[in-house]
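Give me the fold.
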Amino acid sequence: MILQERLPYDPLAPRPLPGIAPLDPEQWLRVDEAYAGQMAERERLIEGHRAAVIVLDESARDMAEELLDEVVAAVLALPGFSRSGDTITRPDGGTVVLCRDDPLATVGRLCQEDLCLLDKRGDEHVLVGACLCFPASWSLEEKFMRSLIGIHVPVAPYDADIARRVQRLCDGVQPGRPLWRFNALWYEDASLHQPRRENGRRAERHAKEAPYLRSELQTLRRLAKTKAVVFGIHTFVLHKANVPGRG
């Protein structure tokens, strides 16, 4: 099991949807105590199950390349990363060769965060690319090229009002001024890679007697050149003994 021992926020504090707040740009990407374990799992998934964790519409390749540039700049500002030529050494000692021909796989090998590219198509933002190694009960294949409201089927609280508010957030987020929110759900299974189809069983979620809390620190960031919106997900999984108020 790959677990964290702490969270940078109170996961049980009630926050009305969508619960968005400004984010310090320097905290867009994070390295925590689960970095080595999560990166090993990401490497395994990208290498052995690529079709399940990476998608990119060719029309969004310039967005993926800009995202790679942003991620490289962000990780090199964090402790433990270094660069020599086209190779970055990570805090866990792993090395990543920068490959602009495969930008999303390269991104996925650098940071713990799953990163999804959203592009405005008509009136809504559409999922045009992603490296999503740690889905929490959704399928990247099923959501690829869907709009925001289609992506969130069958999330019960995501009604038309919430959809309009989230679309306004995607429209309004500005370069250099990212936003963040979090969620928190109880899980029986601590596995990070948990894809589900829309009609798949979800009995393990929301059960407060379950042993693990899974919480996503979710971010929205606008890319300056292509104007794509990047939806980031930093996944925390804690044993309930380490959750404030539940130990």
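Residues 218 and 233 are 5 Å apart (CA to CA).
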